[in-house]
Amino acid sequence: MPAISLTHYVVLSALLFSIGLFGVLTKRNAVAVLICIELMLNAVNINLVAFSKYITPADFVGQIFSIFVITVAAAEVGVGLAIIIAIYRNRLSVNLDDFDWLKW
Amino acid sequence: MLVEFAMQHAWLVPLLPACAFVVIVFLARPWQLLSAIVAVGSMATACFFATLAAIGIFTNHEYVEKPLVYATRWFSLGLPGMPDLRIDVGVQLDPVSAMMLFMVSFIATFIFLYSIGYMKGDPGYSVFFSYLSLFGASMLLLVLSSNLLQMFVAWELVGLCSYLLIGFYTHKISAREAAKKAFVTCRIADFGLLLGLLSLQIVFGTLNLTELAGKIEHFEEFTSFGMLTLIAVLVFIGPIGKSGQFPLHVWLPDAMEGPTPVSALIHAATMVVAGVYLVGRTMFLFHEVPSAMQLVAVTGGFTALFAATIAITQREIKRILAYSTVSQLGYMMLALGVGSLSASMFHLWTHAFFKALMFLGAGSVLTALHHKADVWEMGGLVKKMPITAWTFVIGGLAIAGIPPFAGFWSKDEILVSALNSGHYVLFAMAAFTAFLTAFYMWRMIFLAFFGAENPANHPQESPWTMTVPLLVLSVGACLAGLLGTPWHNVWGEWIRFGEAHEGPVNYGAMLLSIVLAGAGIFLAYTLYLKDAKKKRARKMAEWFGPVYRMLYNKYYIDELYLWFNHALVDGTAKLFYLFDIYVVDGIVNGIGAFARLSGDGLRVFQSGRLQNYVLVFFLGVLAVAVLMAFSGSTTAAGLVLGGVK
Fold first, then answer.
1. In this predicted structure, what is the pLDDT of residue A78?
2. Cβ neighbourhood burial of B487 (10 Å; 0-12, 13-18, 19+)
3. Does A1 reside within a domain?
4. Interface pTM (ipTM) of the complex?
5. Is residue A103 included in any domain, yes or no?
């Protein structure tokens, strides 16, 4: 069994990111889209930690950065869910296709 | 003492009426009589100073060659091409300007006085006097100018006053139209003059009359002969307009829509001779260019004859006088063109008296007849209005050229100088014009003042404010010419360009002009007075039907100009209109339409669907990454593609 190299992490991260992106682009449910965004953020976190580990193992830059990302993501989810609930109260729907008021 | 003061402070003369203008406009306007007194008083004082200054000039022969000039800097600029452009404003007193100064202020004083009676009951009484004062100030400034730019400013000011006063009866459409016509016609001419003055400034670097005179004498150092000719012709265009010379004479007869004192002051005695005066002032320029002199002479001679032929068929009293003015101005130009400043200024001087007299007489008649202007409907006025009638007769004798009245001497002077300079054709034209002048003037006099009375009219003699100026001016019309008799030509000694020349008295020319004047008056007598029913006159008009109609319609020049205006100006305007509509508006509308259309196109992309935006955003990031990868930036490529090269 070959050792797990940087490439493996990067490929995993790319796959996760792509799945997340696909979800963001195709899901109709706003909550699902939020979950997919979480996926993308975590793909980034994997990247950050992996690069940090393999390229500059001495400093914990990547790890610290990923903690920041997690914090921001938590906040973002909080706000995002709050918005979705507000919209839901208004429209009785969480379907993104119904949220087209930003149109001219 | 006082004379010296007046000469050193000649600028007071234009300043006084200017102050009167300000006072009337800002203070005295609600009180009519006060306004009139301020205007007349300031003009009379100006006249007093002008007389003193004239006395000072005409007692010292030095001033003929060396004019009294004092000036102050108006402004100076450093322009590219004209490193030190300095314009002075000042006073130039020499016999010519002193004569004009006296003449203008003297005649203006009496016309102001006359206006008190003439304008009685007019709602714009005070305004009228304020305009008159402004005109007086501008005209006197023009006369005194030591600098051509200063003169040009005054020239435009008198044009403005003329415009305001022609259109004084603003309720009359014809007056408004006439004012516009005068303004536009003069504007066309002033454009030429302005070009001429600019060229003078550029070529010679000064507009000072005395400096210019010195420099133009040696013009080869500055410019070519062709350029000088061009400048002279351009400068002459201004006088063509202002002095009503053919082909820009059309405004002057229409200017008679203004009140009669205005016609007398501005459109007979003073403003219209500004053109003649300007040519006289710049004689040093014209003197160097024989072809320009020829142009002046021919224009003058032609205008004299041309206007006289129109005058013989006109019916309105002021219109006849207007064409007569055009004709007499032609005489003055002719005299300048044949090189006699002296004769020209002499005719200007005498003409001012008798023509102002006749206009004021016409005004007196018009007031008495409630502005019925057709001479054919008058008749026998001499019985009810003796002062007006007899002073008018004196004016008629003077303009016809019967000795010893003023017009005879000056006209004779012009004829002789035309003959002496070898312009035989122009001499013949001028002599024939003299005959026509006597004829049309006396046709008017016989029709209006003599013969059977028209029972429809109830004329009354005018009040003293109107008759006194008539009497004073008629004295002028009698005596003003005696200054320049061929036996003892005082005038020619003082007012001249170059050497005074004492030629032998030309009795032949004198006799000819008397005979022609007598013949004209006699012809008018037989046609219009002896033949009480005017049968022969009517028959003659029928005989010469087409000619008569052509003259009566003033050679259709107005119609020609209208047509020209319609065809060319309106045509060009239409062209520009189309250009405006299609090209200019097209560009503006095109920009609008472009914005709208591109908005329409781009609107599709704003679907309002978040996921579309995300997709586009992602594709954009991808595109940027690919672009950076292939643009050779290794760091970017490394970042984006994870080290894959």
1. 92
2. exposed
3. no
4. 0.84
5. no
At residue B633, the pLDDT reads 64
List residues in chain A touching B: CB distance below 8 A. Answer: 10, 21, 24-26, 33, 96-97, 99-104
Q: Which of A96, A101, A102 sits opposite B611 (nearest CB)?
A: A96
Residue A92 DSSP class: S
Percent of chain B at pLDDT > 90 equals 17
Q: Which residue has the tokens 């008649």?
A: B365
Residues of chain B contacting residue A24, judged by C-beta atoms under 8 Å apart: 611, 614
Q: How many residues does chain B have?
A: 645
Nearest Cβ partner of B609 from A10, A97, A104?
A: A97
Q: Encoding tokens for residue B412?
A: 């004779």
Residue of B nearest to A29 (CA): B611
Inform me whether the C-beta atom of residue B643 falls under 8 Å from chain A C-beta atoms.
Answer: no
Q: B600 to chain A: nearest residue by CA? A: A104
* pLDDT greater than 70 at residue B282: yes
Q: How many CB pairs under 8 A join A and B?
A: 28
pLDDT, residue B638, reads 61
Task: Report pLDDT digits (tens) over B22-55.
Answer: 999 898 888 888 888 899 999 999 999 999 988 8
Provide the 10 A C-beta neighbour count for residue B178. 23
Among A33, A97, A104, select the one facing B606 at the smallest CB separation: A104
Task: Report the 10 Å Cβ neighbour count for A43.
Answer: 21
Whether the predicted pLDDT of B645 surpasses 60: no
What is the reported pLDDT for B640?
55
**Dihedral angle over CA of B319, B323, B324, B326, nearest 10:** 140
- Dig out the tokens for B556 from the structure: 């259709």
B472: tokens are 């004073």
Residue with tokens 């008058």: B378
Q: What is the pLDDT of residue B624?
A: 87
Whichever domain contains A69, its CATH number is 1.10.287.3510
Where in the sequence is the domain holding A89, given as residue range(s)?
A: 6-98
Residues B331 and B304 sit within 8 Å (Cβ to Cβ): yes
**Number of structural domains chain A divides into:** 1
Q: Which residues in chain A are closer than 8 Å to B614, comparing Cβ atoms?
A: 24-25
